Structure formats: structure tokens, C-alpha cells
Amino acid sequence: MRNPERLAVAPMMDWTDRHCRVFHRTLSARALLYTEMVTAQAVLHGDRARLLGFDPVEQPVALQLGGADPAQLAQAARIGAEFGYREVNLNVGCPSDRVQSGCFGAALMRTPALVGDCAAAMIAAVGAQAEVTVKCRIGVDAQEPREVLPRFLETLRAAGVRRVVVHARKAWLQGLSPRQNRDIPPLDYPLVFAMKRAFPDLVLVLNGGVTSLAQVQALLAEGIDGVMVGRAAYHDPAGLLLGADAAIWGAPGGQTAEGAAAAMRPYIARHLAAGGRLAAVTRHMLGLFNGRPGARAWRRILSEGAGRPGAGLEVLDAALAALAEPVRAGADSADAGA
After folding, report:
1. 0.85 exceeded by the pTM?
2. Active site residue 94
3. Second label for 259, Cα 20 to 30 Å away, from 6, 183, 266, 327?
4. Which H/E stretch holds residue 125?
5. Domain tally, the chain
6. What is the pLDDT of residues 33-87, one digit of tens each?
């Protein structure tokens, strides 16, 4: 499939797990999905099936790795490619304390040469099996982004990287929490567009502050290669993803939010049969009917019922039935008025 990066759902810790990705795929067949960040050390020493396993339906899906050791990242990237990921992304943007303590994530913006070494080692390790990409900030702390970012992109290009996701905010590693780093540093879209003009051979994907499909379309129309959406795609998945295939790729649409919920039933049934909990899947579906009549009842029934011992598909059915109540009530009122 061509250009899945034109719309991507960002890697988000505790959110974009395999259940979330399967759900998002019911809404868009084409958007590029990302795993949560997995550290290279975890891949090398942890439960790989749990950390890296994914359902083939999730494709196109990319693995995001965290780390700062070229040899470890190379091994982890090769393992990811062997698991079937066709993209392995290096995290150079996360500002969390845990990531900083390991001297990776956004802290790597201070050491571009090391990032280049990491990327080059990963590229050599995966060969033609997968593409190695990087997700970065425009700078950190007191760095001047208009000086730092061009040099950073030059280093990546020299290492062989051809696609970069740029979160269009600085990260303040001291003084702001990870949550504040998502909102307080000002966005600088013009800088990202300037980098696209300066590096026309790179595929640049803009991330940060995008809240609607219309905004995605407008940014693409301005000449950026792709747009990555984070929290908005999670909290209002239908609003961001449901019409994306038609709007961005000109592909046939026709799916509905109700259809997406129905499409999750076989997956949920398999998950329950394997001993899984309903809430592990439905927690990602709470925003499906965001802004629609009955959405509150949908969220309440799923939130309260899915976590109970033995909860099954009847909870999903009850939530869908409650969603339909306002529609029926409105029809009854219209009939009475006639």
C-alpha cells in the first residue's frame, strides 16, 4: 500500500497496545499504526511474544523502540523485523523521567551523532526487511530549534534515514512534566514546513496539536508528507479515522461507528476465549461515539460493566442498545408531535 504515513496514529504508552490497534484498524484500513514504545533491553531480555506480538490485521503497523546503545538497538530492530514489522521507529522524542534516566528519548536530541550511529546500526541490521525511521522533537531545553533541527536532520540523512516524524514542539526536560510537554511548549509548524523545503528528499511527518481530519487534510495540502495524530485519535477515533481512507487516499469508505463496534465482536470473543478480560479491549472503545446522543451511556455501561468478573459480549450489546435509546426517544417524540 502506498504512503500509509499520510495519516498515522502516534505511539502512546498504555494506550496503543494490540487491542487498541485492532480497534483502530476497524475504522481505517490504511492509516499507519504504531506500537507503544518498547525499550531495546526489554526486547532482548523480556517476553518477546507479549511485547512484540500483533495480529496481522493491524498491518500497516510499526514498532517503536527506545534506547541509546547502537548494538542493542540493532539487535532489537532485527528481532522486530523478524516478527513482521516493516517499520522500526527510534524514539527521540519522549520526555518522561524514566526515559531520561536511561539517557534516551528526547534527551538524545543533545547527541545527534549518537542518534546517527544508532540509526545506521539499525539500518544495517534489518537490511531490506524493514525501514528504520526516527521520531524526534524540534529541540530540547535551551536549544534553538532553527539551528538544531537542520543539523539533526542532516545527521539522520547521512546515516541512511529517509523518513522522520517531527513533533513540532520543544521538550523541556527540566521543569515540565511529560503531560505538560504535550501542551505548553508552543507549536512551530512553520519550522517543520521549512525543513521539508530544505530536505525535499526526506519524507517528513508532522506531529503535535492535530485534532481533526480536516486539519490533517489542510496540512497535507500545504505540502507536508504525512501527519501523525495522537490523543485526538484515541479520544475521538471515529472523528479522526472513520472517513480517513476516503478523504486522504480516495479509497472506498462506508464503515460506520456501529459497524466498527460489530467488527470487534469476533476479536473480543477470541480474546475472552483465551482467558482475557473484556475491559482490556473495550477501554480503547470508550470514545467511539464521542459527541453523539447516547455516548455517555455507552461509556458508562462499558466502564462499569467490562471490568466485572466474567463480563462478556452482553456488556457490549447493552452499551449499543443504550446508545440507540436517544434515537428511539427522538423518533417517538417526533411521532407524538405529528
Report:
1. yes
2. yes
3. 6
4. helix 112-126
5. 2
6. 999 999 999 999 999 999 999 999 999 999 999 999 999 999 999 999 999 999 9
